[in-house]
Design goal:
mainly beta, 2 domains, six-stranded antiparallel sheet, 3 helices, Methylamine Dehydrogenase, Chain H
Length: about 475
């Protein structure tokens, strides 16, 4: 519930502070340096919230009267003369920016220290207006000016109830007691699995066959993408015009990035500092700054982008028009040059390297190579039935066909290196590369399992059962608590 300001002077102050906070939410480098020096394990979220591994949380308070030439030095604490490493309840820096520790009152409610312990200069500040504070936080009445228009969610809000422990058992007989010994590249990792008919994202440790948690979405998932060292998830649900940012450690939805259009697909730059998002109902590609978790830009393009893919060098995007199959490239420099390349029907996947666009045609069951300067087909390679996914790794294309075949195509001499029949039946769906390893994961949209494929041996080395049907799969390079 928003705090209604009645005093015009107070309203003016909050307006000025809100304007300041629009660019000041990201903590200044000198403050970050001090925090990281004294608390090396601290995590500073994109909205300024500071968290520690033991669950300690600090709320930043932006100053109404910032001091000039600050060095990030701590000038006051409560209790007095405490180091930051001793977790004081109030920390005031030489810029007048402050940190307030979240504590519990006698009723067990989340709050901050008594107002008599907080310097007046802090009380005239403002919490970042895009910050997600811990749900149920209680702010003393004489400090509510610091809230501005910031909304505190109630304690039982969905915002802090995204992960629910589960113990699923189905007719396969698989239970939490069944354990898997993962290959070395998959140890201490976590799978995020979605199905075709559920609003749940299943969180499955790689040494298990069933979900440990489920992440409940508001509708069927369009994509779930781990970002920023796998600390956050970008989540898009069908019918929604925004992307939710889930903080995995805090188990909260920390932010919503509104696009005004329904997100459809997402790709990340190799350095993972930006995400490019296509939408269902606009001729545009949206750019999200992953450092600040903010919409950076909207690029107007030709057609309605589908099958978006980043070029091998990261300099361009290739996509097809979902309405007519026209293929375009988009230069990711200041020109944003948008060029028509070719037309093909029923495209399932695209890749771009150098002057060549590689596309999978479901109509002809082919890999087609198009020269994007000549705008013409220069090579075609027959594939197994229903090619659905493709990964470009080194000088090879790994092409997955729904008919349970993995084709390996050499880009140096345009030759088919191998055609590997995958075990079992069903309908193969997706390839997932395990970072810094020789392992691919292969999903099957009908069977309740996924394959572990060794790129050096060119064979499936494990088939892992699950008690859910795997449609889409993302890999977290970490355990979840």
């Amino acid at each position: 519930m928003k705090f209604n300001l009645k005093n015009i002077a107070v309203l003016t102050l909050v307006y000025c502070l809100s304007a300041m906070s629009s660019y000041a939410t990201k903590l200044p480098p000198y403050i970050v340096q001090t925090i990281k020096t004294e608390l090396p394990s601290a995590s500073i979220r994109f909205d300024g919230l500071v968290t520690l591994p033991d669950g300690t949380i600090y709320l930043p308070v932006l100053p109404s009267n910032p001091k000039k030439n600050p060095a990030g030095k701590i000038v006051t604490t409560y209790p007095a003369n405490k180091k930051l490493s001793q977790y004081p309840e109030v920390v005031l820096f030489d810029s007048n920016l402050a940190l307030l520790k979240v504590i519990k009152n006698a009723k067990g409610q989340l709050t901050v220290t008594d107002t008599k312990n907080i310097p007046f200069v802090v009380k005239t500040g403002l919490f970042p207006q895009d910050m997600l504070v811990p749900p149920g936080l209680v702010i003393p009445d004489d400090m509510k000016i610091m809230m501005g228009d910031l909304v505190i969610n109630v304690a039982d809000s969905r915002v802090n109830d995204i992960l629910k422990e589960t113990a699923l058992v189905d007719k396969t007989g698989l239970t939490n007691s069944v354990k898997i010994t993962p290959v070395s590249a998959m140890q201490d990792k976590t799978l995020l699995v979605t199905t075709l008919d559920s609003k749940m994202v299943n969180v499955i440790p790689t040494n298990s066959v069933v979900p440990k948690y489920t992440l409940r979405l508001e509708n069927l998932p369009k994509f779930v993408q781990p970002v920023v060292d796998d600390k956050y998830l970008l989540i898009a649900a069908a019918g929604k015009t925004y992307i939710e940012v889930a903080d995995i450690d805090q188990e909260v939805i920390a932010k919503k990035i509104d696009l005004s259009y329904q997100p459809a697909e997402i790709i990340l730059t190799k350095d993972k500092t930006k995400a490019y998002v296509s939408v269902l109902d606009d001729q545009a590609i949206f750019v999200i700054d992953l450092k600040n978790m903010a919409l950076q830009e909207k690029i107007k393009v030709k057609g309605y982008p589908k099958n978006i893919a980043l070029s091998d060098d990261g300099a361009s995007i290739v996509y097809s028009d979902r309405n007519n199959g026209d293929i375009y490239t988009l230069a990711l420099n200041e020109t944003y040059l948008n060029k028509y390349v070719f037309n093909a029907s029923n495209i399932s996947k695209l890749a771009l390297r150098g002057d060549n666009v590689y596309l999978l045609s479901r109509t002809t069951n082919e890999l087609q190579v198009v020269d994007n300067e000549l705008k013409d087909l220069i090579y075609s390679q027959p594939l197994a039935d229903k090619p659905v996914d493709m990964l470009l790794l080194g000088n090879k294309l790994y092409i997955l066909c729904a008919s349970n075949e993995l084709d390996i195509f050499n880009l140096e001499d345009f030759s088919m290196t191998a055609k590997i029949q995958l075990p079992g039946g069903g309908f193969s769906k997706k390839l997932v590369a395990v970072p810094k390893s020789n392992i691919l994961l292969i999903t099957n949209v009908l069977n309740k399992n996924y394959h572990v494929f060794d790129l050096d041996k060119n064979k499936v080395v494990q088939t892992i059962p699950t008690n859910i049907t795997v449609s889409d799969l993302q890999l977290l390079n970490r355990k979840v608590k």
